[in-house]
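Table S7 (text form). Paired inputs.
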Amino acid sequence: MSSDKRATYERASMDTRVGYGAHPALLVVDLQKGFTDPENPLGGDLTAVIERTNRLLEAAHDNDVPVVFTRIITSHETGADYGIWMKKIPRLDTLAAGTKWVEIDDRLDVADTDHILDKRQASGFHGTELSSMLVAWGVDTLVVTGCTTSGCIRASVVDACANGYRTIVPEEAVGDRAIEPHESNLFDMNAKYADVRPVDEVVSYLTEQ
């Protein structure tokens, strides 16, 4: 980052850490086959993200940390339940109920106790049961992994912050279709909405619960 940009952010006191709370949950965003299989026009190779997310899942499962998986899914042939988003990304129509593209990637260690949450918009909070579950569980910290960094990760992170959660993004456990939006959004989320931290650190935090 240039010295001018660094000075601008430092002047605004951005990049302040919120830290970890006492009661976390793990939110795994959209690591469904439609995004993790390059055969789908929306997909890419997220093997590394899946491997690192499995480390977080192991720590969460071993320490009774609640886990929620999200997936984007339409039950309408025209994708009408996506609303205007469908106009922007027409190939969301591939993420249709009953297709393999809405299945959580088989490489992920999904436990019977994990919750699968269906959504129609980028944020895991929009029009879903996520807030109600987190409140019922007494969660104060939300660890957000998955894809894409510039899309559904960012939208979920912004809403998590707005809803009062300490929000943690494990840097190596989120991915995108291109490196430029990935890196710029990690930088911006860390400055404004979340703590972007190394996976090893976040695994240690979950292990301590």
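Next pair, protein 2 of 2.
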Amino acid sequence: MKTKFTILLSFILLFLTACNSNEATPDDKNESAETVTYESENGPIEIPKHPKRIVALSYAPNIHSLGVDMVGVDKWSKENPLFSEALADVETVSEEDIESVLALEPDLIIAGTHMKNLEELEKIAPTVAFTWGKLDYLEQQIEIGKIVGKEDEAKEWAADFEKKAAKVGEQVKEKHGEDLSVTMYETNGKNFYLFGEAWGRGTEIIYQAMNLTMPENVQKEVSEQGYAEISQEVIPDYAGDFMILSRYEDTDLSFMKDDVWKSIPAVQNKQVIEIDTAASSYSDPTTLDYLLDIFQEELTK
């Protein structure tokens, strides 16, 4: 009797083992093992077709804007007020701390070509590195979409945003004239900068998508590096009809009490738009939509 029970128990265990074996290979696990070839700046790379554990040392806001989860992001993205809450539970990593990346067991790493230890990162997981500014803001988002399996969504956003921003640009020109000029400044209270058409802070919106005019002398100053440092005394020399001032919340703005600042027509006409540098540095969909709303309100009111 005992022998029959033992044989019956063995059959039951074999049956359950077979069932568990079938359940251990669902479609999602098969999908996670699939790879595709991505044509990166440095040649073809085999990356997961459906990455599950992404470490973003760069472009975390672009990835988040596509609704894709990450297991690790850089500290700058986590400190950005537009993303700090959403990324609060994501681990902070750095390209200089290889162990912090290795510990997360990523299946895909997204980085910048300027970063240290790229060769070491490539040993951990497939690593796609972009050169900042090599692609325009729309192309960049589409490329991010390709590597995280969201190309269609990225293309849809790019088309919609371009159309929406162009419409706002037309509204602004109807109100202020075709030749309306805008200057983009940034300050920490002591140093002052001019920015060109592709340097974050919404420059892509103002000068590319909305097609507003950059003063000629500003264009000349930023033509080489994309930005230029200037002294406080010459701020009025570069001021357009509207001025956009990027600064942190705790920036010392005492310079606004000086006669140099007060003499600027845009200041006198209350045509200065202040934006938070901490929330404006990137050129991802979330940041651009946020800034477009500000620009539309301030330039058309």
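The radius of gyration is 25 Å.
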